[in-house]
Amino acid sequence: MIELNGKIQVIGEDCILTEGMVVDKAENFVDFSIPADDRHFKLFREGEQVQAQVFSKNKGLLFSGYISKRLSREIPTYRISNLSGFETIQRRENVRVPCTAVLEYSSDSELLELASKMENAQQVMERIEGIMKQAFMIDISAGGIKFSCHENLQEGQQILFLISICEKMFVIPGNVVHKHLTIDPSHIKYFYGIQFKELNEATKELIVKDVFRIMRMQTRK
Fold first, then answer.
1. Angstrom distance (rounded) from CA 2 to CA 23
2. 29 vs 11, more confident
3. Are 184 and 190 in contact (CB under 8 A)?
4. CATH 2.40.10.220 residue ranges in the chain?
5. 194, HSE (Cβ side, Cα atoms, 13 Å)
6. Beta-bridge partners for 102
7. Can you tell me the distance from the alpha carbon of 115 to that of 123, in angstroms, rounded to the nearest whole number?
8. Which CATH class is domain 7-90?
9. What number of other Cβ atoms are within 10 A of residue 150's Cβ?
10. Is the pLDDT score of 165 beyond 80?
11. Cβ(205)–Cβ(95) below 8 Å
């Protein structure tokens, strides 16, 4: 899947995702360049541990290595050596990572309607503060999340979420696309798969960055 002139995304030790282009490759290295006008431009240092991913259609390849040197080119170009940990993954938007965290949600139809009419996200957060319910996020991707709670929701039901992404709070609507439950003598626990709705590209890009940041942190443990 690593193709010459193909796109590559590299995550450094700072957990920042940078996009580049593959300019050379061999069995034990990959060279990539970063366009000088790229909005995610950054400099890598020699010896830095990195994680990279490339995508082709609906499949992707995730692998690790380190920056062995900076090459003499007109634009910043680096070599990733000691390639290892190859793993096939889903296309970028659907890469899903386990993420145990507390989140807030509401299935109240009036609250959903109110949020849909308010253009300022800060105003929405001020109005919903203190009236949201708590749940536990299980995993996240740019397309949605899986979470658990004690409320019995229905497939197709609309939900409003307050989620922390890249250390910023976002109000995101979604739909329940599947559910299952576990039962023990004391209570019933529900698990839901949620598909996000009405995400703009900027928010989706932030979620993708956060997903790979979490992956990077988990790999380093």
1. 10
2. 29
3. no
4. 97-220
5. 31
6. 136
7. 9
8. mainly beta
9. 12
10. yes
11. no
Asked if 35 contacts 76 with a C-beta cutoff of 8 angstroms, the reply is: no
Do 192 and 203 meet the contact criterion of CB atoms below 8 Å apart? no
If DSSP codes are grouped into helix, strand and coil, which group holds residue 57? coil
**pLDDT tens digits along 19-56:** 889 999 999 999 999 876 645 567 899 999 998 989 87
**Three-state DSSP string of 116-149:** HHCCCHHHHHHHHCCCCEEEEEEEEECCEEEEEE
Given a cut of 90, whether residue 83 has pLDDT beyond it is yes
Instruction: Please report the pLDDT score of residue 91 as a whole number.
Output: 61
pLDDT band of residue 119 (cuts 50, 70, 90) is low
Buried b (16+ CB within 10 A) or exposed e, 3-18: eeeeebbbbbbebebb
Do residues 41 and 34 touch, judged by C-beta distance below 8 A?
yes
Beta strands 133-141; 144-149: pairing state:
antiparallel
Say how far apart CA 156 and CA 160 lie, in whole Å. 13
Tell me which architecture the domain covering 97-220 has in CATH. Answer: Beta Barrel (2.40)
Task: Examine the pLDDT at 94 and tell me if it is beyond 90.
Answer: no
* Residue located via tokens 């996020």: 137
Paired sense of beta strands 49-56 and 29-33, if any: unpaired
* Pair of tokens at residue 189: 């626990």
Looking at the chain, the domain(s) classified CATH 2.30.110.10 span 7-90
Kindly state the DSSP code that residue 94 receives in the 8-state scheme: G
Separation between Cα atoms, residue 26 and residue 194, nearest integer Å? 41
